[in-house]
Amino acid sequence: MPKETLNDYSATAYFASLAQMFQSQQGITQDRLSHDALAYCFSAVLSMLDISILQNQHQVIFDIISNKMLANSVESTNVAKYGVIALQFLLHSKTEQEWNGNDQETEKAFLLLLSCLVDKRGSKVQKQAQKSVSILFQNKKIERLVKPMIAFQSFVDSVFMQQFQAKGNAVSNKTIILLHFLAAALQIMPIQLCCDIDNKILRLTSMEDSYLKTNAYLTLEVFYASRRFNQNQDHIEQILRQLLDNQEVLSTIQKFNQEQDEMRVISYIQCTSQVMVNLSTTQGVKPQDILKYVSACFSIFCEYFVNTSSRIRNAAYSALRIILTQSLKKEYFQDKPQNNGLAAEILSLDSLSLNEEVLNLKKSNKAQGNQGFSHADKVIIYVRYLLSTRFEEALDVGLKLMKTFIIQVGSVVSESADLLNVVAQISPRKDSYKSWKSCIGSFLEAVGAEKFFKALPLRILEVDLNSLTFAQDSRSYLIQIIPQHLKNGDLAFYVQYFLPIILGLDRQIKALKHQNGSDLKIKKLEVLMIQLWELLPEFCKYNSSQLSSAFATLIQYLEPMINKNVYSLRPLALKTFSTLIMHCKATTVVTEEIKKTRQGLKNISLDYITGLQKLYTASGAEQIVVPQDKQQILATLQDFSSIAITVKLSNLFLTGFAELVMKFNEQQIPADKLLNHLEVLLAMMEKVKLKKENYITLMKGLKVFIDNAQTQKFGYKLLAKIIEKYEIENISELFDIQNELNPLLQGQPSKQRLFLIKSYVQQMDKFKNDQANLQQIGDLLKLMIVELIQAFSNTNKKVKRQSEDIFKQIFELIMHMKALPQLFQMLLVGFAGTKIQTQSATIRALLLLLKLNYTHKDKNENAIRFEDPSFQEFLRKVTRIIVLFMKDHQSGNELHRSVLKYIKTIVSFLGVDLLKGELSEQMFTGIFGIQSDKKLFNKHNMLIKKILSKFIKKLGLNYVKSITPEQHQKLILYIERDRRKRQNKSKRQRLLALIGASEKDKEADKEGAIGDIDMKSDSELSGEEQGYEEDDGEQSEKYSLNSDQESEDESDSESDEEDQGGDKLMADEMDIPRVDDIPVVSKLAKEKKEIQQKLPKADQIKSNKERITQMIDAEAEEFESHFVENPFIKLREKALSKNISSKQHLGRDNLDMDEKKQDIYIIKESGKFVINDLEDDEEKKIAQKKLKRTRQEALGTENLDMNESSSDEDAGELRKKLQGLSKKQKTTTNAATGSTTNTFNSIKDSKAGNSLLKQRRQKKEDDGGHITKYSGNTYQSSKGKGDVLKAGKYEPFAYIQLNPKMLNKRNKEKAVKSFENVVSHGKKIGKRTEKRQDGLLSGMGFKKSQ
Q1: 1334 near 1323, Cβ under 8 Å?
Q2: CA atoms 287, 289, 295, 298: torsion sign
Q3: CA–CA separation, 649 and 685 (whole Å)
């Protein structure tokens, strides 16, 4: 390589170097690079080359790909995969003229890519080739490329021809792989090419192998399910005819592979159904042709319901259901000629033998001189055929298909009545009863109630009630079907059809009662009659041509039900009135009958209101109303009030209210009856309108009810309704009302009183457009704000939620009047409260207002701008007041949490200048001051961490450390380290978007870029929102809080590169990631720009070394790309000694480093990677190794397990053991000492000595009791008894390995003593017996150690 290119880091230079390495075979023999890594680098560099360079160097690139990467001698799947990727980039550079011309180079490259579809090296190469070819086909411009399409077609022909010519019809693996690819490719290829290929695929279904046929059918199914033809009707018909003529059946020979045989049949069914649906949606197809093929599909698929598995039966059902849904239309049956023989054929189908049925159904022309069935008739007969006795095992499937057919076209099929009778005559089993009822209900939905009961009338009065088959014969089961499936009911039909049946049942009941007949029979008749009456509200939901007259007929039967509760039908009669009233009010089609019915209901409304009022408030044994009836009475009374004449209703309300107040003052009414009267008045308030002269009377009466504890709840409700309905002319009237009612608003807040406040706010909202009313509105709100603040601390969630809603309404009202600063000032009155709950509620209310203001700051110009200096000063003063609450550590958890939440939010809104200095120091003093109470501090641990992270992001790390006490510096460092990890993760997600990030991940990144706004809940905060930036705090003065998004946009704009070269055929539609989306390549591209800035040579060399170091030491995720697997990662995992020298060999610990050890972060200002200093971890490793070496010397073994037990003993205990070992050696005799020392020294230097020492230690453990592998001393409490939980460790445990020698009774004492440090043997020891008196092992004696 020339000297001038040594420091050239451009893509062209990299390409030249890699090409030279491939051609000279250096890349394979070098120690630091494997062939996989070289192939990866080559394909990555090609992705960043200009198109003009790719075109110019085509021969060089193609030679490397064909001879070095995709040659038959190359066994590595990774090399071949990257070769396919490189070939894709090469073909991308070709122009339209090169594709369609006589360019041999382009043709060779494309054929090489096609051959990779069936590459022998395996699925990895094949999948990459499929992706690359699909990218070419997906481009719309590919339709203009004739030669590539011809080449692909020839390739498919050659593969399939090899299959056809194979000896013994052996299945070729290439054919299966190609079919899998075609399942995807046919969805995006030009339609003409698809039509030619699917013919060849269909030929494969004529072969004998089940697996091959299954794949061929599935490929066709995917193709026809994903594509819809606007033309080519003849082609689809040809495919469908071939499929229908070659029906697949289960093998009759010995079933060697039953599952594969079933799969073949299922794939055939699915394929045929999709082709049928495709034909029915093709333009220009005649309805008769569609019906012809639908009946042909039925004739074939119905055979799969007999003597087949459940899988095949379900597949056939799904196929027919799709065909019925997608292929049948009502207009196909409207013009169907009438056939008198069709009804007879439907009814007598089961009377024929099975063979005759099939033959008759398949006849296509005439029989015995009569006109033959049309194709529409055949479809109907086939649907009926599925309900014959032949398909008894598949009755559930047949009923579901009948339901689908009726819902689709039943309303226009004249034979629906005959089909309904056939279904009704079936006696379903338990497993198909639900489908049977649903099928009958579908007829009711399709044809309507009148036609339905004309075809299938009820026979309740004709059939003997004592008959065992009464339900089936009388068809009483239809009563339960009507409510679920009734559509377009007609009240006149109910009166005409059901009312006579009801009256007939009533006559039978009265006759039996007069004759003292059977009580059981009477009860049965009553149940039937009540069930028929219960259908009445369902028929009142629809318009009718005789609605008014039908309802007039029913009133004479409904009134006795309400007054006398006949047959306990009072709730039903009331529900009928309510249903009809709501229908007349809500109907969109207002006919003359609707108008007449409305007027009639309005005329009787006052009479019914009066009657229902008396009924609800009546007393006496004969007038007792159950609670369920009371609820319906109030609901109906309210409905009648909504349509009553307003003036008369208001007079009735005032008269009733005055009488009630008078009786209450004179104590002439009991408490329970009084509450009933109040409930009635509330129900009447729907349409009542009050005038000024009535207001004073109402106010005096309401004071009486509110002062009474029993009636206070209803008094507040009624007062809220009165204020809501009161017609106020100006705000002064509302102010006078409030002054008069103010004494009533004392005490604890309740839900009813909040309703009253809400009514006030709604009235004030009417005057918000006049700024002259601001002063009086503000004075009114000052009187209500205290109670709203108190409601914030209410334990009742409904009260709390209601107060929040009122606060939102007040905020919108005041914001419209441009007076939000006054609202914030009003709220400060809560800080004057003496109760902790009031202070905490005030802080939470202030947070709510800040949240609302932030939400509207960009939507409404009247919202306060957070950068406003006056608002900043207000927030600073309020914050100083709130922080003072942190000094009182006895104030409780609720207040402290409110203060911390406020601090967490206000940090985002206060400017840096105001936040720095005294205010931030006060906050930190309060935050760390609660540490004296560890229990309190631990409760808010996570919240404090988030607050500190926000401070660091806002003010900078150095400033936060300067105001943090020394004992809490570790917490700051922990938060800073956690921030880097989150930030790295966010950066990686953006850099590695190339891998194929989901839409959910992309949206998460967008949300993370918004900033650190605290208007979300803690659980919704993303990593970016909880993180911070390491800066001096100057850039945080912006209040848009979108710095992250801006920086991201800038980085994207910097990395955009303009494409260069000639005709870029596929540049717009390319599914290949851009250069700046590939992490490794984008780094090179950015650094290329930096190099072009003419840096000094020394700085260039230094930058080069740093870049290489970062790439080698970076996390594996940093090198992920759209190539899915990276050879750099595999290089680390393998670390083969033959390719890497022993000096540079990376151990497994270095290769498989976890995320905690790979602490890499990015400096935002420079955009560079920085590797964290890991010296502390290295020092810990060295210390651990020294400790392990010391133990080995002491115990004489190198195989000591140090994984978990190292934490069980500290260094002091180890020194004591060593000292005890040396003392033992000194106590021996001189002769023995000399020999022992020599022996020990000789043993220590030999492997045999190690084994001997290990045996001695093992023998000592065996003789000393059970073996303690992990004593659990780490978890012992230093302050008392028991264990403690430790951060980063498992829950307390101990592991004692059982010693088989301790089974001997003589070793019982040693065995029990082994558990002395783990299990409590007892609290006391008997002085006489020296045994434990209680505990787990009580009664066990121990000898005192000497």
Answers
A1: yes
A2: negative
A3: 9
Q: Taking the mean position of all CA atoms in its chain, how far away is CA 754?
A: 37
Indicate the SS3 state at residue 1159. Answer: coil
Least confident among 542-556, 594-608, 975-989: 975-989
Instruction: Write down the pLDDT at residue 622.
Output: 47
pLDDT at 437: 93
Paired tokens of 1277:
């409490």
- DSSP character string of 514-537: HTT--HHHHHHHHHHHHHHHTTHH
- The DSSP letter of residue 1267 is E
CA distance 394 to 70: 55
Residue type, 213: K
Q: Which residue's entry shows tokens 């540490």?
A: 931
Closest CA to 866 of 634, 1079, 1041, 618: 1041
Query: How high is the pLDDT of residue 712?
Result: 79
Question: Is 1322:1338 a contact under the CB 8 Å cutoff?
Answer: yes
Q: What is the pLDDT of residue 457?
A: 93
Distance of alpha carbon 723 from alpha carbon 763, whole angstroms: 8
**Among 344, 421, 342, CA closest to 387:** 421
For residue 447, the SS3 value is helix
Q: Which residue has the tokens 């029906």?
A: 247
Under 8 Å between Cβ of 97 and 146: no
833 burial via Cβ count (<10 Å: 0-12, 13-18, 19+):
middle
Q: If you average pLDDT over residues 35-41, what whole number do you get?
A: 83
CA distance 71 to 91: 18
Residues with Cβ within 8 Å of 1119's Cβ and at least 6 positions away in sequence, in order, are 1079, 1080, 1111, 1126, 1128, 1129
Res 1129: pLDDT? 38
pLDDT digits (tens, 9 = 90+) for 1034-1045: 333 333 333 333
Burial (Cβ within 10 Å: 0-12, 13-18, ≥19) of residue 791:
buried
* pLDDT of 87 above 60: yes
Check: CB of residue 82 under 8 Å from CB of residue 39. Answer: yes
Tokens representing 948 are 């500190």
| CA pair distance 716, 721, nearest whole angstrom | 9
pLDDT band at 156 (very low <50, low <70, confident <90, very high): confident
Instruction: Confirm if 699 and 723 have CB atoms less than 8 A apart.
Output: no
Q: Give 557's pLDDT tier (boundaries 50, 70, 90).
A: very high
So what's the pLDDT on residue 1320?
61
Do 750 and 717 touch, CB atoms closer than 8 A? no
**Residue 1051 — pLDDT band, cuts 50, 70, 90?**
very low
Alpha-carbon distance values, 770 to 704, 782, 818, 819 (Å): 36, 19, 11, 13
Q: Report the share of the chain in percent with pLDDT over 90.
A: 17
Strands (E), 472-604: none
Arithmetic mean of pLDDT, 525-549: 93
Mean pLDDT score of the chain: 75
d(CA 90, CA 1121): 19
Residue 1338 binned pLDDT confidence (cut-offs 50, 70, 90): very low
Q: pTM of the entire structure?
A: 0.63
Q: How is residue 370 annotated by DSSP?
A: B
Which residues fall within 8 angstroms of residue 821, CB to CB, at 6 or more apart?
A: 864, 870, 871, 874
Phi and psi at 1300, nearest 5°, equal: -60, -25
429: left (phi over 0), alpha (psi -120 to 50) or beta: beta
Four-CA torsion 209, 212, 213, 215, nearest 10 degrees: 160
3-class DSSP assignment, residue 367: strand
**Of 1142 and 543, more confident:** 543
Dist. CA 752–CA 1107, nearest whole Å:
70
Phi-psi region for residue 892, left (φ > 0), alpha (ψ -120 to 50) or beta?
left
In this structure, what token pair is assigned to residue 514? 């007069």
